[in-house]
Structures are given as C-alpha cells and as structure tokens.
TrEMBL record:
GO biological process: protein secretion
One Pfam match: SecG
Transmembrane portions of the chain: 49-70
Name under which the protein is recorded: Protein-export membrane protein SecG
Keywords: Cell membrane, Membrane, Protein transport, Translocation, Transmembrane, Transmembrane helix, Transport
Membrane-protein topology: Multi-pass membrane protein
Length: 71
C-alpha cells in the first residue's frame, strides 16, 4: 500500500511540473480580450508536454481510484 502512495506523490509532482511548463499566454486573460493570437497547432516539445500532462492526469486519477478500491 505504501508503494502506491509513493508512486502517486511522484506522479503528482510530475503533473505539476508539466502543467507549469505549458504555454503561459493561454490563461484567463485571453477570455477578456487580453490577447489577439489565433490558434496554432502544437509542435515538438509543446505537443509532448501536452500529451504527457494528459497521461499523467489519467495515471493520477487511476491510482486514486485504485487506492480507494483497495481500502
């Protein structure tokens, strides 16, 4: 059981890092007309970080559900 705790903490830290590495310009300010950028496709490292964030979020959620089921 303790191994799941350690794995979930590591995934949580990695998830925080990948979220912080994403583009900072696409925040809430653009909803109020702060930016006039058009949508551009993700390429290279930005695309990898985007998919890594999704994978880490799914893994974090899955581990959380697994920990609940094992209790």
């Amino acid at each position: 059981m303790q191994m799941l705790d350690i794995i979930q903490i590591v995934i949580a830290i990695l998830l925080i890092i990948t979220i912080l590495l994403q583009n900072r310009g696409s925040g809430l300010g653009s909803a109020f007309g702060g930016e006039g950028n058009i949508y551009m496709a993700k390429r290279g490292a930005e695309k990898f970080i985007f998919f890594a964030t999704i994978a880490l979020a799914v893994a974090f959620l899955g581990l959380g559900v697994a920990r609940i089921m094992l209790q």
